Amino acid sequence: MKNASTTRCGFAALVGLPNAGKSTLLNALADMPLAAVTPKPQTTQRLLRGIDTQGDCQIIWVDSPGLLRPRNALHATMQRQIHQAVRHADVLVHVVDVTRSSSESDATPDPLPAAEVGHKPVILVFNKIDLLPCHAVEEGLPKSRDAINRVSTVAGWGMVDSRWSLPPTPSRGGNDKVRGGQRVRDNNLSFRSSQNVASEGSARQKSSKKRNLYGINEHFEKIFNEAETSTAVLRRPALGVSAVTGEGVEELRAAVAGLLPRGPFLFDPREVTDAPERALAGEFIRREAMLQLRQELPYCVAVTVERFDERRRRDPRKPLVEIEAVLHVERASQRPMVVGRGGECVKAIGTAARTVLQQLLDCQVMLRLSVRVQPHWRAHAPSLRKLGYGG
Fold this sequence. Notes:
The chain is an alpha/beta fold. About 30% of the residues lie in helices and about 15% in strands. It has a 6-stranded mixed sheet with strand order 2-3-1-4-5-6, with helices on both faces.
């Protein structure tokens, strides 16, 4: 048992606009796929905690839905969860997609109230630096104190205290990895050298990346415009990370660890999350539905796990978990689209989900899916509670 006077423990809330890469960053910090990730915004609809225990420090990372201006009861519920995460956090980690300008945002989010931000330390994280050309990282990102202040001195942030720095690129010997089939890093591009960058069109690309980066001022103003400047948050340097390649992740972990209060661990060091496997199963089934469906349909689907039978999980001959889940849609006309001709769409969702769940549960999975109509569930608070979203 560790001495509480020598250990640090606390909550670090990952906040930011939709599709900033918060869930991917949580998975990188946990070193395992805890959160469901898709290229589509608003994949995360509930809080998810990842428990990261290393040495004398335990960080509970809290993944939250993307900040937005609520348009229905579901959005309002998601925003309340964000506020809950911020209120209970010891450190706020504001994640920004460095490849997107503020004009590309889907909607103007409601700001976080100053009372919730309080005097909590806030760490600004530029995510997805692996997608920037090396010359943009070398020349287009802010490097001087004055340049960083231009992107950091906004309501709720104040001045930063150190120069922008990029983590060193580890040598991988050409062994590229693809995670989730979404992104590949070209190891021929170096963050520390621009020798491999073609000169043709470099000025135009560099200018574009600069505009995108400085455009995030507007993101901060949207989210923290009710917070007091300078005194509302501690002054911290910005960090560049790639949740996909892992660059900068250790620097972020160290920065958060140094800000946590001293105290005993809240969870067993062997735990990686406090979310039940049943809940994780529902999220990964919904993930596959979002990937299979098109247009607005992915956002009209909720998933409930009706049965999670582990009685045969310890069977030495064939470990098995039986799962029965329901995909809920809002209108009767949506049901045949989710089922598909001859059931091919719901079968594809089930096949993909089964593969993921077998890796998660480390055993065979028998998965049965059905589709039901829950009229206008996103706009109806009682329906949301019935589907497990709370009030």
